[in-house]
Write a structure and sequence with these properties.
With about 210 residues, the protein is mainly alpha-helical. Helices cover about 65% and strands about 10% of the residues. The protein contains nine helices and three strands, in the order H-E-H-H-H-E-E-H-H-H-H-H. The protein has a three-stranded antiparallel sheet, with helices on both faces. A hairpin with a 2-residue loop joins strand 2 and strand 3. Helix 1 packs parallel to helix 6, helix 5 crosses helix 6 and helix 5 runs parallel beside helix 7. The chain is elongated.
Length: about 210
């Protein structure tokens, strides 16, 4: 997975749940199955947070919670700017062979204002329409080996399917049928997120927030 995609996911997890500790971020991202579709090594999450802290994108706060030391993370202003840049890039830049950044950005849509989300998805739709037109341009049988041409056909079919999905998603957002407010959905009663929310309130109190 590209470094910028890993950074997007880590910054996004911090933004969604801050102040949050490293174990909670790891557990949350693994619940998204990022090790499968984003190829994130679970062990790299802590190193990634340390790197983001060195770069000034997150702040590490060392607290004592119930007699135990705990490091909790919050986004800085530069981290918020970097996260927005990464999400918008992930939404707008089209690749026929790698949709990892797009998938990561979709996971983090609630962190973007609705108007910016629509603008970025519309830009992606335009770019994807150009890709479909290019891939769909007929070529002669001598342009490439037959198996390579079949691969191009697969890329075209996938792009057409994504384009249909994208058009429908844009319309849902315009109609207000796809709410992005995290408060519009609540996890089941046994979800670890409830404990994370309780911990967040306690961390905020310890930080004097």
């Amino acid at each position: 997975m590209a470094t910028h995609d890993t950074r997007m996911l880590l910054l996004g997890a911090v933004a969604l749940f801050e102040p949050v500790n490293g174990y909670q971020i790891r557990r949350e991202l693994l619940s998204w199955q990022v090790e499968d579709w984003a190829h994130v090594n679970p062990g790299s999450i802590y190193n990634g947070l340390a790197t983001l802290a060195k770069q000034g994108h997150v702040t590490r706060n060392d607290l004592v919670d119930g007699g135990r030391p705990v490091a909790v993370y919050e986004l800085t202003d530069s981290g918020r700017g970097e996260l927005e840049r990464l999400i918008r890039s992930g939404l707008e830049e089209v690749s026929t062979v790698d949709r990892t950044a797009f998938s990561a950005a979709i996971c983090l849509l609630p962190l973007l204002p609705a108007d910016r989300t629509l603008r970025s998805l519309t830009r992606r739709r335009v770019a994807l329409e150009e890709v479909v037109a290019e891939l769909g341009t007929p070529v002669g049988p001598d342009a490439a080996p037959p198996h390579a041409l079949r691969m191009v056909t697969l890329w075209l079919d996938l792009a057409i399917a994504e384009l249909a999905w994208l058009r429908e998603t844009i319309e849902q957002l315009r109609r207000g049928d796809l709410p992005l407010d995290p408060a519009a959905w609540a996890p089941p009663a046994d979800d670890p997120g409830w404990q994370m929310s309780s911990d967040r309130d306690r961390y905020r109190a310890l930080l004097g927030r």
